[in-house]
Amino acid sequence: MKKIIYIFTVISLVFFTISCEDQFDDEQDVITTEDIELRAFLPIDNGGYVGTVLGISTNGSPNFAIASQTVSNAFNIDNQGNISVADNSVLDFRANPQIVVEVLINKNGTEQTSTVIINLIGKDTDGDGTVDVDEISNGTDLNDPCDPIQFEGYVDFNRSNEIWSNGDCDGDGILNGDELANGTDPYPCQDNVNTSVWAGNVITEDVGFDFSIVRESQSSCRTIAIKGDVIGFGGGDCDDSEDLLILNFEPDSDGATTGNVTIPDQTYLDICFGFGERIRSQEPGRYDETTGIIEVDFVIYFDEFDPDSPDNFGGTLGIKPE
Ligand SMILES: [Ca+2]
Ligand SMILES: [Ca+2]
Ligand SMILES: [Ca+2]
Q1: Per DSSP, what are the bridge partners of residue 49?
Q2: Distance (Å) from CA 141 to ligand 2 centroid
Q3: Residue 28 has what DSSP assignment?
Q4: CA of 43 to the centre of ligand 1 (A)
Q5: Residue 167: nearest ligand to its CA?
Q6: Which of the following CATH numbers is that of domain 31-122: 3.40.50.11060, 3.30.70.380, 2.30.40.10, 2.60.40.60?
């Protein structure tokens, strides 16, 4: 009897073991992955880490392989799914700003694909608007936010960049970030118009009419601002107006002492009339630093009226130092 029980037990054990193995063999690998989007900041070294592809199998670690990529040999992948740069010489963020990599995740013949979009971005370490790869090829300093030199009016900087904010590009002792907060220009004037010729008192006249007025003028980069009624248009209280008339200068060439002068479209003596008078130049006038003479045709018109109408009041504004 004992023998029978023993044989039965052995048979049962064998059967149980076989049935377990059958069940194990029948279990399919299930692989979990997802499509992802990554960013690679250039320049980046060969071997530089870019990101990791998710790949989980129900039966241990799966294998990762790149099936295709839109720029050959750009990236590698290791067996943890880490994507790294294979050959940085083929990464060009202007020619190919986006590279699509198809990754196969495989375990025991079961396979899933992850589509990985890698956006190439030109890094700008110092926030001056010139990306590092260009600073390297141009020979400028990628850690100096004021190299290459830019001039007043330049706006392509990154205002949230700390290196840029802590720079002082015009050398006036006020940091770039503070200049932005103050509403001043952080960049130096391109010093090829000597507007100081018209700083202080200037004589203004409506050329062809027999009068002239002395007015106070402030000069800054390629611009002067003259206080009050420059052409005797208003008279009375308007003479003492603090309103400013802005004129802009554009040299004929770099370093030239002559060039064009324009009156950008602006309100004129609004503080003393309040009728919405506007003034602008009809076409660019001329300035000459040596003689100190400025002449520019102007037109005065009312807001919402046609500034080109022949019925508008106009003339030639003459300006010279007192
Ligand atoms: Ca830069
Ligand atoms: Ca720089
Ligand atoms: Ca400054």
Answers
A1: 84
A2: 5
A3: P
A4: 12
A5: 3
A6: 2.60.40.60
Greatest mean pLDDT among 229-238, 267-276, 292-301 lies in: 292-301
Matching residue, tokens 């503070």: 178
CA 185 to ligand 3 centroid distance, Å = 8
Domain ranges of the chain: 31-122, 132-182, 195-321
Is the separation of the CB atoms in 123 and 158 below 8 Å? no
pLDDT tens, position by position, 118-144 = 999 999 999 999 999 999 999 999 999
What pLDDT is stored for residue 10 in this prediction?
42
Distance 135 CA to ligand 1 centre (A): 6
Ligand 1 center to residue 133 CA distance, Å? 9
* Rounded distance from Cα 127 to ligand 1 centre (Å): 5
Q: pLDDT tens digit string along 181-237?
A: 999 999 998 778 999 999 999 999 998 887 889 999 999 889 999 998 888 876 667
Q: Nearest Cα to 206, choosing from 219, 215, 194, 196?
A: 215
- Name the CATH architecture for the domain at 195-321: Beta Barrel (2.40)
- For ligand 2, the distance from its centroid to the CA atom of residue 160, given in whole angstroms, is 15
SS3 79: coil
